[in-house]
Amino acid sequence: MKNLDLPQLLEAETKRPPKIVIVGRANVGKSTLFNRLSQSRRAIVGNKEGITVDRQEILVEDTPINKPFALVDTGGVGGSLEDHFLGDEIEAAAEHAIENADLILFVADGSVGLHSEDEKVALWLRKRLPRKRSVPVWAMINKCDRKDFDMSSFYSLGFDKFFDISCEHNVGFSDFWEDLSQAKFALEELNEESPDVMEQSRADARILVLGRPNMGKSSLINKLTGIQAHVVSNVAGTTRDITTSMISYQGYDWNLHDTAGLRRPGRRERQVEWVAGEKIKKMAKKSDIALILMDSSEGVTDMDQSICGFAMDAGLSMALLYNKWDLVEGAEDPEQKAWNFQRTEDLKTDFLQWVPRLKISAKTGMGLNQILPTVRKLAEARNQRIQTSTLNKVFEEKIQNREHPGVDGALRVKFYYLSQVATNPPEFIMFTNVDANRIHFSFRRYIINVLRDEFGFEGCPLKIHFKKR
């Protein structure tokens, strides 16, 4: 295939935009560069080594060159992985990203000069570059604002281009953007959809996968997508960044967001886990559905209950996934184990009677075929709109003449009509003759139960507002 310049490349009939992959040894500023180029704070950064474990990919659409590209952040590779308990998994994720790259940004720390680890990573990278097509490697020498910055030693690596930059202070990027706009890449034609994942605005729903550490969230997403895209380990806290996978099902496009395990504030590692928790809160505001994983062998815990409350407060539709059910069935006394789980479930999730529950095993595949149909039901219920005539027929039969608890001054509460004002999630407004704060909570709950009985709204939180006419 002939070389194409970037504008031609982006207009070509390919199945994906150019993919730019960031690699380098640990703690040289890869995630900071990722955030700078994507104009986001998606990647968690810090001075501690090994914060980035999973590969993270995002579609960058608003760029100085006015053309989109996919940007991929990877974990630190090289000698540091030899002692890392997830070394093989981190390296495999980075290798997979390199195989599909159209441009590689090799990041190094210019404040320490050429490090022996940089040379090892460069050698590691050359052995893994695609052989069937030419993939340029640009060296991004970071921290050029430091007094001890030395770029000259890096030329011996022999890469295609070198840029002295400061990711933290946004220095030196004008030359990079200019060269990127004029770059020529040999992008291979793709005959089918690329299996790699990226954030896409066209997805019909954003699905947040929540749970405590080591609940099997990453394993579940790998099973659903059929791609080993997320690093999986028995060690709690493997996932730190929010990573995104895309899945299509019966005409729907869904983004699956893998999240860090949530723990109580007193047990969190201050820097990384606090930042991860804040990112989950922000993502929850943009999401539609929460799949909440729990460990069936442990039962439903107080923290599981808190996570459910968090999802409900965020207005997310929910499904409870009781993972590791194979450990319940394989226990010495499975009936007793199942009874113990049922007891904690009744105690901790009584306020979620309207939420579907599935018994699954991400390890064996048990029950996974039920998840996507359930997600479809949740998405449809969340966008359901009831005709005003149908709604008010139910209102006249079951709500209008229902006796309301007395209010101050013995004023009789009257209700006039009910209307749906929004979807995703569904919101209703009811006109009455008293102020909203005088409506008893039990009556509000009664109306919501009526709406669920009549129209379903499975797994979907309902909002109802009262307005004095």
What does the model show?
With 469 residues, the chain is of the alpha/beta class. The chain has three domains: 4-185, Rossmann fold, CATH 3.40.50; 205-382, P-loop containing nucleotide triphosphate hydrolases (Rossmann fold, 3-Layer(aba) Sandwich); 388-468, K homology (KH) domain (GMP Synthetase, Chain A, domain 3), CATH 3.30.300.20. Helices cover 31% and strands 20% of the residues. The chain has 13 helices and 17 strands. Strands 3-4-2-5-6-7 form a six-stranded mixed beta sheet, with helices on both faces. Strands 10-11-9-12-13-14 form a six-stranded mixed beta sheet, with helices on both faces. A hairpin with an 8-residue loop joins β3 and β4 (69-73). The longest helix is centred in the middle third of the chain and has 17 residues, at 270-286. It starts with a strand and ends with a strand.
